[in-house]
From TrEMBL:
Pfam families listed in its UniProt record: Omp85 (PF01103)
Gene3D superfamilies: membrane protein fhac, membrane protein fhac: a member of the omp85/tpsb transporter family
Membrane-spanning segments: none
Compartment(s) where it occurs, according to its Swiss-Prot or TrEMBL record: Membrane
Protein name: Outer membrane protein assembly factor
Keyword Membrane: yes
Gene Ontology CC terms, in alphabetical order: outer membrane
Amino acid sequence: MPAHETQMSGGFAPGRGLPRALLFALVCSTVLAGEMRPAAAFEIFGIKLWGSSKDEDADIVDPLRYSVTIDAPDADKDLVKKLENASALKNDEDHPVSGSLGLMAKARSDREQLVAALYADARYEGVVTITIAGKSIDELPPDAEFKGPQPIPVVVSVAPGAKFTLGNIRLKGDAAGLASADFGLIAGGDAGSGAVLKAEALIVRALKEEGRPLAKVTDREIVAEHSSSTLDVTLTVAAGPVAGYGDTTVEGTEKVDRNFTEYMTGLKRGQQYSPQEIDDARDRLLGLEVFNSVTIKEGDRLDANGNIPIDVQVSERKPRFFGLGGTFSNTEGLGLEGYWGHRNLFGQAEKLRIDGSISGIGSNSISALNYNAGVMFEKPGVLGPTSKFFTGIKTVFEHPDAYDHFSVKGDVGVSYDLDKKQRVSAEFDLDYSRITDAFGKHSYLIASVPLQYVYDSRDNKLNPTRGFRFLAYAEPSYDILNGATFLKLKGEGYTYQSLDTASRFVLAERATLGSIVGTGLQNVPADRRFYSGGGGSVRGYSYQGIGPKDINGQPIGGLSFFETSVEMRIGITDTIGIVPFVDAGTVSTKSFPDFSNVKVGAGVGLRYITPFGPLRIDAAVPLNRDPGDPRFGIYAGIGQAF
């Protein structure tokens, strides 16, 4: 082999110590692990409210503190950041290690992590040197002791070397007919270890999508050409035969019915294998909300009938749950809500939920607070694994500016997922209500059949950065007591566009259009009319404050409305963001919106990202306010505005 090349069959080997580093890179590229520590201290928005880091380190034997300096003079800012993120020494600098042996072990592990980070950045000539108290870890004896004042100085020196690009690329075996460029392997392109591993996974996935569950990479040959700083890649792939699903076994169930769990995977014996169906089955089981984790493993060989066995491993969640929440606005007051539920009532993931809320605190008088309470029951799998039956009863007693309203409503219906992105639902509702509004006091008994279609391709439901959501809603209704018939129509669209690869800048837009046809405004119960304004609508205006009003200046609602919003969600750090926004809306007493009187609000918000969704604070002002409109609005809650 020429002196300017290094090669290792089955792995990267362009430099000393590479096989272990490659293994580490493989692991880092495919696994994320987290560690939960006892909550000895509490911190939010970067401010520690109680406790101290010393409390967390109290159980460390022979604690030894150290300080870290990362010296990489030839690395650019992005690479330095990657190295810092990869360094456990740096990330754990505030926590002591367990004696000199603990520091040595951490330093040796850190070198592998840093080399893996260099490979991920396509730097295969990089050299990482770590010294402790001025001595290289390669020269220190295994029983070295670090005496003297603490913290012990640790210096990480990184010479990154040249950045490699891809050179010659060959796909062999059953992948010989595939185009490497379709999987990101392009001469002159990204040669990082992550890019190569991703391409391997995509090639295997492409063959598996042909119904070949045993497809795998059988040989990997990587050659680093140091003279030209290129990486030659040769991958040999075996596709294996086309197969169907064999027996599905379920492990880990305790209170959830095992046969029901198997049924909900939707993997029918003999049906041709599909990796997408495996992914869908995993997501569907997680969507039942009765499992903490779901792992679906495919057999490593076919059964006697030429099918692939499937093993489902689950761990169950606690069946009971409860929660508390709240919102606040200077125009709508304080709102509190609570709920209790059971995720697995009869053993087949049936959900029972009881909830209640109170709102208007501080904004309304005690006698005019808003209350609602309800009971909801869901049973999945009634018409196939992607279906759900639901029923419930809800009572409401509320006093918004537009009306006073008491109602008791019952519903029963079914939803069905057409695929991962599309859902349809139909239900029957019966709603008795007593309402006092600008048209007087009335009682209603409304029978209706709400129909809904939802398309949702968002990448994250709590904090989307890409994707689209569309909702179409139609509700034919008949008032049994008064004889009125009307049709309520509504459409909503939401788009999310990440303007950079790191999703630090996300443009979010929404538009909503609604119309009621078939009768006059006075025949439609006030709670079913359209309103606009407030924290979940056009910020800067009061709740229901946009649209037609009676002689006393109180909103009466409309037969149509239109709303739109634009937000620029800017990530300042990984957890803190700011959101400038503009909202607009209009409400009309006619069945088509009146765009000549659109109200506009604008403002800025603060977001703090948490695992359960962003914490939100928005401040907005009305740009074309009328007399009686507030001069500003402040809103707080959990989750993005839309």
